[in-house]
Amino acid sequence: MLKARKCVREMREYHSPLSAPATELRLDMNENTTGCSPRVLAKIRSLDAKLLALYPRREYGERLVADFLGINPSEAMLTNGADEGIDLLCRAYLDNNDELVLVVPTFGMYEVFSQGSAAKVARVAAGPEFGFPVDKVVDAITPRTRMIIICNPNNPTGTVIERADILRVLEAAPDAAVLVDEAYFEFYGKTMMDQIGKVPNLFIARTFSKVYGLAGLRLGVLAGATEQISVLKRMASPFNINAFAIECVAEALADRESVDAYVQQVSRTREWLRKQLEALGVKCWPSAANFILANFGASKNNVLTAMGQKGIALRDRPDCEGCIRITIGTQQEMERVVRELQQILAGKPEVQQVAG
Ligand SMILES: Cc1ncc(COP(=O)(O)O)c(C=O)c1O
After folding, report:
1. How far apart are CA 154 and CA 325, in angstroms?
2. What is the pLDDT of residues 279-303, one digit of tens each?
3. What one-character DSSP code corresponds to residue 120?
4. From the CB of 220, is ligand 1 less than 6 Å away?
5. CB of 81 closer than 6 A to ligand 1?
6. Which domain holds residue 328?
7. Closest residue CA from atom 2 of ligand 1
8. Domain boundary residue, one of 203, 225, 254
């Protein structure tokens, strides 16, 4: 019988929450619940049949994005979502028995993509309050470490990693590809992008799926040293980005008003929600992203099921005991969430109490 490679046969099946029954309000994927910029939508509507008959010109979009990021086009690669960039890095740098260092809990797809080779994952547990355990990360680096992924701000905790800690990891592992995943950069505002072109083993992933509200378009960018990006470009299809996405880049980047308004609203609503949850006795962690991690303790399953029945999808995080990740929607949407939670929790007092 035909057999796929051993490491592929042994891959765990990935269950996307999207396979769950459809819900009316999706707060489980950190999408922008207000949608994309009207300028982007107008651009999509204006595209004609001739354009779609042509293979897409990735280099055109790459120049625009590189310019926006303040790096050279040779240091940028547009990817089919940030996911493709992560996958390409794993395929390019991880061989059998190589090691990938991750601080957990973190974004689940890192491990999924690493399974494309028989690499080993060295999981370093986050410190107290999900802090970045930089000493332990440095200690976990061995001669077999070929890749380290730092998610900043981290999904699902929303916590951030200091620049000095990232620089320390980069220096401690000169022979490893160090990816800083900045999918939620816009909500945090701090980046390592200025180090592209200076630090040869640094990569940065960004996405148009979150702040730009374009998850359905599948567009991300990977930044890195020219020599490394040119290798990655050889591995991917030259047509990995669709024409719609490329044509929309200019409008998406230009509409700063949309981006700024969304970031401001989400930040305000997130802090409002945190206070509301804490008033319900639910512990939350400070977040610098468009989601919040909340500990419902023994009530977790009840909350997930009951909210699902009310048409609201929240994200179970089995990797953080008792925790649910909630995407921040509009103020109105979150008011509805709080009202529903108040009702559900009224009969369930066993939530994790807020410390101190
Ligand atoms: C940390 C992180 N990186 C990457 C991604 C994937 O983004 P994209 O939709 O661009 O593939 C996500 C999506 O949730 C994410 O949370």
Report:
1. 12
2. 999 999 999 999 999 999 999 999 9
3. E
4. yes
5. yes
6. 20-32+257-346
7. 183
8. 254
